[in-house]
Design a protein that fits this description.
single chain; about 300 residues; alpha+beta; 4-stranded antiparallel beta sheet; 12 helices; about 35% helix; globular
């Protein structure tokens, strides 16, 4: 079984408080984008979960969220067969793009189908939150409001079609460090309600003018490259720029494809410190939920 695990960005990310258990309460606008890892799953003998990855620096044991997802379903449903997982990583690691969470979501869906568990999205989501706060959203995909610790999800209308340039400086940001050093009393909070209204009205300028992420207040001073890449994207015509998640990835929303491609080319030429520069687009929830093979997805896109 071949699957795609899509990255996400956060057009809006607010933290509203800290819970007694140490988790933070959030209100986030989440958006799937067309940058994805490729995952293959295969049933095998021996009862083991065997994982391999295109990146040598990624663990293939239970530190990997995809392996945790497989282990969870194998134990929960007493699956006697083994599972082989192959990850072809295209989403940068520790980037604020939920690559690991998306891999886990794809594995949950894939194993449910591979072993005919026939689990519904809600059933998978209740299991997914045990793996990570972003995993339930990655099961859903598309445009959504995430609340609680990220597990309370409200689907939103599709974000208007637009090219999005994603650029990740070659640094890694610890999410734990960012949240530990976040001072909510000194942070400007984004207009999440206003962004929801703009999305509902199909008002892309209304979305770009409300882009906001409270975690920038920690990540930008610690990693100056984030601020520099945001400045570069603005200079090359982005309608709005923002850091995704806890960083360090920055994205820019552009008015047209030509401007986005030009900006991406210029970033690749002028900045050798970027791990990835990619021109993407918003992905609809219906596309994410299909999780077809690449060929079938390409056929589907031609009809949308």
């Amino acid at each position: 079984m071949n699957l795609r695990a899509y990255a996400k960005i956060n057009p809006g990310l607010d933290v509203t408080g800290t819970r007694a258990d140490g988790y933070h309460e959030v209100r986030m606008i989440m958006q799937t984008v067309d940058l994805y890892d490729e995952i293959s799953l295969e049933a095998c003998g021996g009862g083991e979960i065997i994982c391999s990855c295109s990146r040598d620096d990624l663990p293939c044991d239970d530190r990997n969220l995809a392996v945790r997802a497989a282990s969870l379903l194998v134990k929960q449903f007493d699956i006697s067969s083994g599972v082989k997982i192959r990850l072809n990583k295209n989403i940068p690691v520790a980037a604020g793009l939920a690559g690991g969470s998306s891999d886990a979501a794809a594995v949950l869906i894939g194993i449910s189908r591979l072993f005919r568990l026939n689990l519904r999205e809600g059933e998978l989501a209740r299991l997914a939150v045990q793996i990570g706060a972003d995993v339930p959203y990655c099961l859903m995909g598309g445009t959504a409001l995430a609340e609680g610790i990220g597990e309370i999800l409200t689907p939103l209308p599709d974000l208007p079609e637009c090219p999005i340039v994603i650029a990740k400086p070659a640094v890694s940001v610890s999410t734990g460090y960012v949240y530990q050093n976040l001072d909510l009393a000194k942070t400007e909070h984004p207009d999440i309600d206003g962004m929801q209204r703009a999305i509902g009205a199909g008002d892309l300028p209304g979305v770009t003018e409300r882009l906001g992420n409270v975690l920038e207040s920690v990540s930008e001073p610690a990693f100056p490259a984030i601020r520099e890449v945001k400045k570069n994207l603005r200079e090359h015509g982005a309608s709005g720029v923002l850091m995704s998640g806890s960083g360090p990835t920055v994205f820019g929303i552009f008015p047209d494809c030509a401007a986005a491609e030009c900006a991406a080319d210029e970033l690749r030429r002028s900045r050798s410190d970027l791990e990835i520069v990619s021109v993407t687009r918003p992905v609809k929830r219906s596309t994410v939920n299909d999780y077809h093979t690449g060929e079938q997805l390409d056929d589907r896109r031609q009809t949308q």
